[in-house]
Structure formats: C-alpha cells, structure tokens
Amino acid sequence: MGFLRLVGTFVFFLVLVGSSFSAEVCINCHRVKTPGIVKDWQTSEHAVNDVTCSVCHGSKHRSPRNAHLARLPDERVCGQCHEEQFEQFSRGKHSLGWKAMMALPVTPLEPNELIEGKRGCGGCHNMGIKTDEDLKGLRVQGYRYEVNSCDECHTRHSFSEKEALNPQACQKCHMGYDHPQWEMWSSSKHGSRWMAKKMGDLPEAAQAPTCQDCHMPDGDHENRTAWGFLGVRLPLPEDPQWAKDRVTILKALGVLDPETGKPTEILEAVKALRLARLTEEEWQKEKERMVKTCSRCHSEGYVRQQLEMGDRMLKEADRLMAEAIEIVAGLYRDGILKKPEGYPFAYPNLLFFMRTGGGDISELSYIEQVLCQMFMKHRMRTYQAFFHINPDYAYWYGWEMMVKDLGEIRHLAEVMRKEARRSGDGQEGNGP
Ligand code: HEC
Ligand code: HEC
Ligand code: HEC
Ligand code: HEC
Ligand code: HEC
Ligand code: HEC
Ligand code: HEC
Ligand code: HEC
User: pLDDT, tens digit, for every residue of 105-120?
Assistant: First the structure.
C-alpha cells in the first residue's frame, strides 16, 4: 500500500514536471508571439488548475515551423474533464447545428466562403459536433476549419462561466432575419428589466429572466423547445382547418409529396436532425419543462394562458401561409410556373430561400421569393415574438408583414395569369 502510494506520487510528480515543462515552453514563446492568447488564458479557471496549453493542444508542435502539429481540440476534448456538460450538449439541438446546415437543399449552392469561412451560414452553424467524415467533406481544401462548439459561449481562452451566463453570449447567432430572439428579448419587458438591473436601477435580487434562465435552467446544456425553429409538429392538430394548413406547409417543406400526400425521404432527415417533435409526448415534455421554468416567477395559470396564445398565433399564421402556398401551387398546376431543373416537385419549396441563378437551379421567380420571405422572415417573427413577449415584432414585423406578403402574392399571381393568357402560355391560355 505504502509502496503503491509512493509510485503513485512519483508518477504524478513526473506528469506534473512534464506538463509544466511544456507549459513553460508554450507560454514563453506564445507570450511573445500571441500575447493576447496567453493573457486571456491567465484569466481562466484553467490557468489556476494547471490546465495548460499542451493539455488541450498536445505537445508535438514546439516551433513556428510545425504549428500544423498542434491539435485543435473539439468538444470531446473538453468532455474528458466536463463529461456532464458534454453529455447534455450532445443530447440537445446545439450538437446538430452543423449537420442541419449541411442537410439543407440550398447549402450546396451557396458560396464556399459563406459555409466554411466563419461568416454566413457556417458562422453560426459551426455550433455542432462534426465527425471526421464531416470534416473530410469540407469544400475548401488547405484551410483549417475551427471545430469547437463549447467556445461559442465560453469563448477561448478565458473559457468563463460568467461570460456564458450573459445573454449576449447568444446574440451573435440568435439575431436577425429569421430568428431575431436577441432583438425580441432585449426590447421586451423581460430584457429591459435585465438591462435596468445591470445599470444598477433595480436591486440585484430583482427578477429578470435571461435566455439562459429559460433555455438552460439549472445550467442544463441540453437545449430544445417544443415547437422548434420550423414551428411544425406531429401529430396533426384536431382543428380541421389547421390540420389542412399544416399539410400544405409540410408539402412546401418537401416533407410530404404534393401529389400523393405521402412522406418523402426528407422526413427521415427531419427525424435524424430532430427538426420537429414527432409525437405528442415529446412536445408536451418540452412544454411542461417551460411551464415549470416560467412558474418560478408567474402563476401557473397565467403561464399556460400565455403559451397557449402562442400556439394559437401559430395557427393564425399558418392560415395565411397555407393560402399563399396554394396560390403559388396553382400557378405550377396550370403550367404558368414551370418546375425548374433540380427542383424536387412542381410545387413551391420554402427551403430554397431567395436563390436566384447559378447552380443547377434556374432563377427562382419573384413570386416564390416573396413566398420564401413570408415563411422564413415574417411567419418566424409572428410566433417567435409571441413566445418572447415582444409587441412590435409580433405585430408590425411579423403578422402585418405576412398580410402584406399575401396581398402581394395575390396581385402577382393575377398579373402572371393575365400575362399567360395574353401570350398563350399555360393551360388557361391554351383553351379554345
Ligand atoms: C518557439 C515558439 C513557439 C513555441 C515553443 C510554441 N509555439 Fe505554438 N505557435 C507559434 C507560432 C509563431 C504560431 C503561429 C504559426 C503560424 O500561424 O504561422 C503558433 C501556433 C500555435 C497554434 C495554432 C495552430 C493553428 O493551426 O493555427 C497552437 C494551438 C499553438 N501554437 C499551441 C502551442 C502549444 C500547446 C505549445 C507548447 C506545446 C506551443 N504552441 C509552443 C510559436 C510557438
Ligand atoms: C484536463 C481537464 C480539463 C479540460 C481538458 C478542460 N477543462 Fe475546463 N475546467 C477544468 C477544471 C479543473 C476547471 C475548474 C474547476 C471546475 O469549474 O470544474 C475547469 C473549469 C471550466 C469552466 C468553468 C469556468 C468558470 O468560470 O468557473 C468552463 C466553462 C470550462 N472549464 C470549459 C472548458 C472547455 C470549453 C474546454 C474545452 C475547450 C475545457 N474546459 C477543457 C478542467 C478541464
Ligand atoms: C446569424 C446566425 C445564422 C446564420 C447566418 C444562419 N443560421 Fe441557420 N440557424 C441559426 C439559429 C440560431 C437557428 C435556430 C433558430 C431557432 O430555433 O429559432 C438556425 C436554424 C437553422 C435550421 C433549422 C434547424 C432546426 O433544427 O430546426 C437550418 C436547417 C438552418 N438554420 C440552416 C441554415 C443555412 C443553410 C444557412 C445559410 C443559408 C443558415 N442557417 C444561416 C443561426 C444562423
Ligand atoms: C481548455 C483547452 C485549451 C487550453 C488550455 C488552451 N487552448 Fe488554445 N484553443 C482551444 C480551442 C478550443 C481552440 C479553438 C479550436 C478550434 O475550434 O479550431 C484553441 C485555439 C488556439 C489557437 C488558434 C486560434 C487563434 O485564435 O489563433 C492558438 C494559437 C491557441 N489556441 C494557443 C493556445 C495557447 C498558447 C495556450 C496556452 C496559453 C492555449 N491555447 C491553451 C483550447 C485551449
Ligand atoms: C421568459 C423565458 C424566455 C426567455 C427569457 C427567452 N426565451 Fe426563447 N423561448 C421561450 C419560449 C416560451 C419559447 C417557445 C417554446 C415552445 O416552443 O413552446 C422559446 C423559443 C425559443 C427558440 C425556438 C424558436 C422560437 O423562437 O420560438 C429559440 C431559438 C430561443 N427561444 C432562443 C432564445 C434566446 C437566444 C433568448 C435570449 C436572447 C431567449 N430565447 C429568451 C422562452 C424564453
Ligand atoms: C449555448 C451556450 C453554451 C454552450 C455551447 C456551452 N456552454 Fe457551458 N455553460 C453555459 C452557461 C450559460 C453556463 C452557466 C450555467 C449556470 O450556472 O446556470 C455554463 C457552465 C459551464 C460549466 C461550469 C459548470 C459549473 O457548474 O461550474 C462548464 C464546466 C461548462 N459550461 C462546460 C461546457 C462544455 C464542455 C461545453 C461544450 C460541450 C459547453 N460548456 C458549451 C453555456 C454554454
Ligand atoms: C454559434 C452560434 C450559436 C450560439 C452562440 C448560440 N446558439 Fe442556440 N442555436 C444555434 C443554432 C445553429 C441552432 C439550431 C441548431 C439545430 O437545431 O440544428 C440553435 C438552436 C437553439 C435552440 C433550440 C431551438 C429548437 O429548435 O428547439 C435554443 C433553445 C437555443 N439555440 C438557445 C441558445 C441560447 C440560450 C444561447 C446562449 C446561451 C445560444 N443558443 C447560443 C446557434 C447558436
Ligand atoms: C426570473 C423570473 C421570470 C421568469 C422565469 C419569467 N418571467 Fe415573465 N416577467 C417577470 C417579471 C418580473 C415581469 C414584469 C412584470 C410586469 O410586467 O410588471 C414579467 C413580465 C411578463 C409578461 C408581461 C410583459 C409585459 O410587457 O407587460 C408576460 C406576458 C410574461 N412575463 C410571461 C412569461 C412567460 C410566458 C414566461 C416563461 C416562458 C416568463 N414570463 C418567465 C419575471 C419572469
């Protein structure tokens, strides 16, 4: 026993000497070459706990000439010491960000720089676990791609818990066109209270929920919501009109075949990437988790009403959306819009965004661009703002814009039909 302990102590001593040796080598040079990185690391809990440069990067690289030998640690390396957070993260939706981006039909058509250059889609969808297979598939050879997701909230090299607790840690990605949660939250009552607290105008103990309070309760790194991004789910709702409208939307997402109404292979991707809750239980579980969170500060009845109104708003938005899709689908049916090459169906598809020209897909017609915008920008805002309690986004940037889109689509369709009649194009124009 005594002997074993002696050996143990000796081995520990060797490891310590070994790691502090490379620590010194790395730090001495990097203090000069990249002083900012060393300073940042020195502020971290890692510095205090002897988690030195070589623990994460290995010690194969020791001179500027062989910098390519430095290992770039992915989430699994962090997981060696933070198993709980890694496991939670892996079960949640953030771990799928990269794969979800890659699965979209529009992605292969986008410029490489906007996928792999840490700007555009890839700037936010770097969030996510990438397998070796994924990295082999990178399109730009010779560039080093950043692999780690943990440093999206605990940015390197301070890797701070406090920084990740600030809602601004979410801002870079959860903002803008189709998911302006930052804008909605920060100008809501919840957000403005948080700001007032930060400025010292409210006591520290005053309640003001942040993104993390609602989406990472008790520090849980598994994140998921009931409705998710697309705002569709199964089973279909009982309300017959809403059920019909959701089927129309699912067709326009390519999940259901527009002719047969049967699921397409895209449903498999939806399942694999957990893009939608596919059972009632799954949806209820997330909803109840949220009810519990809100009920820390509000009465449960109040909370349920608020969330149910959010669901109803989605139903209203789906009515407008389905009507718009059907108008464009009618143009395909009557041969006024033609199925572009590389397009799955003679039916509008919401996930081709505002693609114009290039690739194997010919130009998306203007009426379809308006339709995509109605879905991606305005329907998203309508219901997301309801859940994030933002009056202006819910109405003026959301609902009102959907109404305007629908008006424009109706008008454009009329003009296109008139045009087709005049030029003898399409079935309507081919009549006797
Ligand atoms: C004698 C100086 C020197 C020493 C010693 C040194 N580095 Fe470096 N390291 C550099 C320089 C310079 C670069 C930048 C190379 C470039 O971009 O051309 C670099 C780059 C890196 C990179 C980035 C690699 C990449 O792909 O961008 C990491 C990570 C790194 N060093 C970690 C370490 C670690 C860990 C150690 C100790 C085991 C260490 N360095 C020792 C000088 C040094
Ligand atoms: C060799 C083990 C080890 C590795 C690898 C490691 N950490 Fe840590 N980390 C620690 C220790 C020890 C602490 C301090 C005690 C604690 O909070 O658990 C710590 C603390 C933290 C904290 C809390 C900091 C704070 O402000 O309280 C975060 C966040 C963190 N690490 C993130 C990471 C990330 C991200 C990675 C991967 C890039 C990583 N760690 C890799 C050991 C490690
Ligand atoms: C500013 C950051 C950002 C950019 C740029 C961005 N995304 Fe996203 N994307 C997100 C966020 C955040 C979500 C989750 C939003 C939500 O749930 O409200 C998301 C959601 C998605 C989803 C749905 C995932 C799901 O599970 O529902 C797909 C697919 C997707 N994005 C693909 C893309 C593609 C392709 C591009 C480029 C054409 C792109 N994104 C550009 C941040 C971004
Ligand atoms: C807790 C783990 C951890 C420790 C400790 C650590 N790094 Fe890093 N480092 C990372 C991660 C994660 C990345 C980003 C990897 C990626 O996504 O490609 C990174 C990236 C880098 C880069 C390349 C990116 C850039 O901004 O140039 C350099 C250089 C670097 N580290 C140097 C160091 C040095 C020097 C030390 C010690 C003072 C150190 N690292 C300590 C985790 C760590
Ligand atoms: C008061 C609690 C609360 C706060 C604070 C909050 N959210 Fe949410 N969030 C919700 C609710 C409720 C939903 C909808 C849940 C559902 O699907 O039933 C939601 C949904 C989401 C979604 C899925 C798409 C959507 O918008 O419906 C994302 C992504 C999201 N929130 C991110 C954020 C970010 C980022 C912040 C901070 C800028 C934030 N949330 C602040 C309660 C909150
Ligand atoms: C979406 C942002 C986000 C991402 C991504 C993220 N974290 Fe965190 N992390 C947080 C927040 C917020 C906290 C503080 C939670 C709390 O205390 O309520 C935290 C806390 C931590 C802590 C401190 C826990 C403690 O109790 O001391 C560690 C360690 C940690 N994270 C590791 C990781 C690792 C490892 C990864 C990658 C697998 C990761 N985090 C990814 C936001 C994030
Ligand atoms: C680097 C970009 C990035 C950062 C930073 C980030 N997220 Fe995300 N988030 C994403 C992407 C991308 C997705 C969509 C992933 C998917 O579903 O495939 C997402 C999805 C989500 C979802 C799941 C919505 C759903 O579909 O159910 C929630 C909730 C969420 N994020 C909350 C947060 C919170 C809270 C923070 C800050 C603590 C944060 N995120 C920080 C990029 C980011
Ligand atoms: C950490 C505490 C906390 C949590 C968690 C929280 N709230 Fe609040 N909420 C507040 C406070 C404080 C106010 C301000 C009360 C007022 O309006 O006078 C508020 C206000 C509101 C308002 C009125 C907004 C306005 O503009 O007047 C609604 C609606 C609301 N919350 C719904 C929710 C919902 C739904 C959830 C969960 C998704 C939630 N809250 C979670 C503390 C919280």
Answer: 788 888 888 999 889 9
- pLDDT lower than 50: segments of the chain: 1-18, 359-360, 429-432
Q: Which pLDDT belongs to residue 145?
A: 86
Can you tell me the distance from the alpha carbon of 27 to that of 147, in angstroms, rounded to the nearest whole number? 23
Contact 330, 403 (CB under 8 A): no
Longest dimension (CA), the chain: 104
Cα within 13 Å of Cα(108), Cβ side: 7
Token representation of residue 277 = 């809750």
CA distance 345 to 239: 28
- Evaluate: CB of 80 within 6 angstroms of ligand 2: yes
> 116: phi > 0 → left, psi -120 to 50 → alpha, else beta; which?
alpha
CB 211 within 8 A of CB 167: yes
Closest among 159, 146, 180, 228 to 394, alpha carbons compared: 180
> What contacts 362, CB < 8 A, 6 or more positions away?
340, 341
Structure tokens given for 381: 């805002």
Contact 148, 127 (CB under 8 A): no
Spatial distance between the Cα atoms of 334 and 155, rounded to a whole number of angstroms: 54
In this structure, the residue with its CA closest to atom 37 of ligand 2 is 78
- Which atom, in ligand 8's list, is nearest to the CA of 206? 12
Q: What's the rounded Cα separation, in Å, for the pair 366 and 358?
A: 16
- Give residue for tokens 């010194």: 24
Tokens read off for 279: 């059972």
Peptide bond before residue 157 is cis, with ω within 30 degrees of 0: yes
Tens of pLDDT along 24-44?
Answer: 899 999 999 999 999 999 999
Instruction: Indicate if ligand 7 lies below 6 Å from the C-beta of 154.
Output: no
Q: How far is CA 184 from CA 16, 176, 321, in A?
A: 49, 10, 22
What's the pLDDT score for residue 161? 98
Q: State how far the Cα of 12 lies from the Cα of 204, in Å rounded to an integer.
A: 44
Rounded to whole angstroms, what are the CA distances from 109 to 112, 173, 383? 9, 22, 29
Average pLDDT, the chain: 90
Q: What is the pLDDT of residue 273?
A: 94
Q: Distance between CA atoms of 336 and 420, rounded to whole angstroms?
A: 7
The one-letter amino acid at 47: A
Confirm or reject: Cβ of 125 under 6 Å from ligand 7.
yes
CA of 72 to the centre of ligand 5 (A): 32
Contact between 393 and 317 (Cβ < 8 Å): no
Calculated CA dihedral for residues 347, 351, 353, 356, nearest 10 degrees: -60
